[in-house]
Amino acid sequence: MDYQYIGKDIPVHEAKAKASGQLNYAADLRLPGMLYMKLFLSPVAHGMVRSLDVSRALSLPGVVTVLSFENTPGVLYNRGRVRATEHAPDQETLFSRHVRFVGDRIAAVVAETPELARRAVQLIQADIDPLPPILDPELALAEDARSIHEKDGVVRLPLVRYGDYASAQGEEFCHHTSSQRVSHIAMETHCAVADYKSASDRMTVWTATQSVFGARSAIAAVLGMPMSHIRVIKTPMGGSFGCKQEMILEPLAACAAKMTGRPVMLHFSRSETMLCTMLKHPLDSHINVKFSPQRTITGLQLDCRLDAGAYQTVSPDYAGSISKNLSWVYNIPNVEYRAVTVCTNTPISGSYRGWGGPEAALIMENMMNAAARHFGMDPIELRLRSILPPYATSRINNLSLGNLPLEDALILGRDRFRWEERKARLAGQDRSGRFVRGIGMALATHTSDYFPRKGDWGTVVVKMEEDGSVHVNCNVHDHGCGEVMVFRSIVAEVLSISPELVDLPEGDTAYNALDTGCCTSRSIYVLGRAILDASKLLLEQLKRNAGELLTCAPEELSHQDGALFVTTDPQRRCTYSQVAYYVADKGREALFVAHTHVPVSNPGPAAAHFAEVEVDTYTGLCKVVDYLAVHDVGKALNPALCRGQVGSALQQGMGLVFCEQLKLDPQTGQPLNADLRRYHIARACDLPNLDVLFLEKPDQEGPFGAKSLGEVCYVPVAPALIAAVNDALGLDLSQLPLDPPCILSALARRDKVREEDAP
């Protein structure tokens, strides 16, 4: 079908403002009388603050107050809880006497300028009794280990089981995978601004959050305020990848604003963002898989451990989500999944792009690639023998995965990447030289909303103004990747008006209906569908009133470019503006629709990624040469923005595999590289030739058939790259990162074994 705006490459709505530097982020806000907040952080990984001397800081002219555990609410909360009813461990307070990692919050200075706040923090003195730090989750799990929390220091998830692994027949194959602690490195560091009016007991908070209602809930819980007295406004966001999903700065800034009666800004530096917000979980896993003689999977047994860091936050739920992904790609009749999340005296782990999906894919796809080498099989062929067919039902939560085209993605990817041709070419290369190449691939899917794991819905209001322009009230949280423009395009497509005539502000608790926020890839599938349906209902309302105006039945009308006309007599027409004024003059109704969409499906968007990597055996450096990402998106609503998502996911995955790691001193827990001078990421110049192929098989529930893309495009990247490195070197590396020391060490071990085995 030919659309006006859907499927077209339209720039993000803020493109001009971003390019010109005119877009105002939270850190650009300036309110009359605004104060600035700076945190005093624990210098030790574990200890009890015996005394806190803030007198020198308070004596500095321009310092308004100092907050600490001595004068702020001691309410225990969980920064990852979006709604108060969610079951999650409450372990954190605004400030802590019992510090549990280097970077834990002890106090904060509030001053007239940022410079004064920074100077004053350096004058605070804390006498801390050190306690032995537990930096290794293995030590925290020892029988005689003392937990760093009185409760929930170790959370063992209930066993997930279906079928009977013990009775499953076949050859058993075992594999181990681990990954490291990494930072999200969003371009925008964290910032929140709070303003409290004591006369009315009203709080307003501006923040680049993924959930304005989650931030409101946390503030209300900590400060004991009615939710109706708290307004949270989502500001433009310079990236998140999950690090702005938890409520971290908002309760702190709100507490300071309430104590001082003046607006307060809390703006993190890069190092503070890396240490004091959220990191990707360090993962350790061991998997046993049974393969039949035909090399189909008959059973799977997986033990998974996540290092939660100093507080559990979302880690138990995160570990639980890994289990659900086990039944979304392969037909596995017998599964046992055990998981444990462990608190250690390290920076806090939490939400990261994909929320368990990348971890599940890393474990499963590393195993499948290793098993293919073990059995002497092509990795694509091995997968084809066990993948789920379209409209398969997940054995966990009995969920239909929709028109899941895993086989199509594999076969199309194999052909487009010229897999067999590359395999033959690389088989003949001289592997004794400095540079060697290999190819690898991985398969994955993900989620499109919460259903049926928990309730999900999207409520929107679409109204037409008197001039024919449209305003949409929707709790959208654009990360900077273009959701707002896609939503505007949906409205524009239904009504046949320019997207420029559609106003769609972002999340604001004062005006939006309660909503979960931007997470679990739900925005397009849930909110986009709600906007689509509401726009159609508004069009029906327009036609009904235009029929009165033109003295015809609504069914006789067509619409195009902001006007309605009689299909058989196009000269009989009226503009949307004329209809709007007609409705207003009648005085009986307004042109608006409030609509709630409740999803009853959650189709899996299939993804198959293919990579060719070159390894420098002298330096250990790896270079990604070519990359293909095949994605089932249902319908690419904005192909350019979709390709941008895939490119960013590849860059992020390259960093995870080849260079990123937040390093801690193994004895003290001190961070060794919490800045971008020493923490290395994949850069734009490191990106390879990237080919993106979209499979467009519309899903009946998605808006115009669309499924999710924002997270699934990251899910298979790491195992595809790892497989290519292993193919080049003839190794089975599965412990990240594959940085130069790791590669060189592995090559040295390989060469030593070869020498010992030589006759």
Short description:
The protein has 759 residues and is of the alpha+beta class. Helix content is 28%, strand content 23%.
Q: What does this entry look like structurally?
A:
The chain has about 750 residues and is α+β, with helices and mostly antiparallel strands. About 30% of the residues lie in helices and about 25% in strands. The strands form six sheets. A seven-stranded mixed β-sheet has the order 3-5-1-13-10-11-12, with helices on both faces. Strands 7, 8, 9, 14, 15 and 16 form a six-stranded mixed β-sheet that branches. Strands 17-25-26-27 form a four-stranded mixed β-sheet, sandwiched between helices. A hairpin with a 4-residue loop joins strand 10 and strand 11. Helix 14 crosses helix 15. It is globular and about 95 Å long.
Write down the overall geometry.
globular
Computed Rg = 27 Å
Beta content comes to 15-25%
Give the spatial strand order of the biggest sheet: 3-5-1-13-10-11-12
Total of helices: 18
Note the gap between the termini: 67 Å
Estimate the helix proportion, in percent.
25-40%
Note the main sheet. 7 strands, mixed
Provide the residue-averaged pLDDT. 96
SS content category: alpha+beta
User: Oligomeric status of the shown chains?
Assistant: single chain
Q: Got a strand count? A: 27
Low-confidence runs of at least 5 consecutive residues? none
